[in-house]
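user: can you give me the structure for this one chain? C-alpha cells are fine.
assistant: on it. calling the predictor now.
[tool input]
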Amino acid sequence: MDALSAIRDSPVGRSLSDAALTALVERAGVTRLAAGETLYRRGDPASTFAVVISGTLGIYLHDGEVERRVDGVGPGLVVGESALAPGGQRNACVRADDEATVMIVDVERDGGPWLGALGLQLVGLMRDRVEGANERSLAALRRELEAQVARVSIARFVVVMVAGLALYTVALGIMLSNTDNYLLSNILSAGGIAGFAVVVAIMAWNSALPASFFGLTLGRRWVRDGVEAVLLSLGVCLALTGLKAVVAAFWPAFGPVIAPGWTTLSVGWDRIAFAAVYVALVPVQEFIARGVLQSSLERLMSGWKHPILWSVVLSSSLFAASHAHISPLFPPITLVAGLLWGAMYARSGSLLGPCVSHVIIGVFGLEILDASALLRL
C-alpha cells in the first residue's frame, strides 16, 4: 500500500483536501522500521509526528524502572501528535512491533495552510488517546489493587494454616500423652479438624477469592480425573497389599494381611462407623491441605523456581506433621500419600481426584489392611 492510499482515510487525510494531501505526501519523508526499532524516545524534542502506512507501532510508558506497553497504532493511524504543541517533549516511547513503514511529517518544515485544520483533528485524537490511556491505567491499577488484596488474603491463610496446624498437633499430643485410647484419639482429631475447617472456610468466604482457587470445582475433565484417581488408587492398594504380605511373612505381628472381619464381611458397627466418619472428613482435610494451603503457597511462591513443586512438598509436609500425635510412623506414611494427592491437585486444579483417592487408599489401608493396628504396635 502506498503512502497516499494509507493516509487518505487517516485523521490526517480526513482533514485535508486531495491537493493538500498530495502535496504533504510529496514533501514528507517515508521511513522503514525494523521490528523493535525505536521511532520516538521519551524526553526527546517533539517536532514531528508519524502516520503509519504499514505494520504496527507500540506505545510504551515508564512506571519507575518498569516499561509498560499501553497502546498500539496500525495503518492509517497517527502517533507523535504532541509535535503540534511548540516546544513539546515526548512523554512516551514508540517502537515498531514488527516491520513497519511510516510517513514522518515535520511540523515546521512541512507545515502550510492545512496545519490549522490538521491541528484541530489531531488535538481531538490526542484527547481520545489520553482518555483511553487514563482508562487503561485505571484498569491496570484496579487489577493491581485486587492482586494486592488477594496476596494479603493468601498470606493470612498461610499464617493461620501453619499456626493452626502447629497448635492442633501440639494440643492433641498433650491431651493424648497419657492415654492409648485409639478411639479417643480419633474423636479428638476429628473434632479438631472440623473446628479448624470452620475457621478456614470463614476466611475463604471473606477473602473474595473465587471458589475455583480453593479447588472447589469439578473442572472441565472431571470424569477423566475421577477415573484416573480410582485406577491409580487401586494400583496403590494392590501394592500395599503385597507389601504387607511380604512384611507379615517375616514379622507375624503384622498379620494377617486382611483385617479380621473383612474376609468374612462380619465387620463390627464400630469399624463401619469409623470408616464413615473417615470418609466424611476426607473432603475437609483435602480442602485444608490442598485447596487452601497448597493453593496459597503456590500463589505466594509464584516468583520461585518450580513453585508448584515447592507448594506440593511444603503443604504435604505440614499435612504429614499434623498426624504426629497418632504415631511416629504416621507422618512419613502420610507424607508419601500427601505428595500423591498434592500432585493430583496440581494437575487438575480440582479436589475431586484427591478426595476420591484419599477415600479409597485411606479406608483400604486403615481398615481392610488394618494399618491402624500396625501404627499402635
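assistant: here you go. The longest strand covers residues 66-73. The two ends are 85 Å apart (CA to CA).
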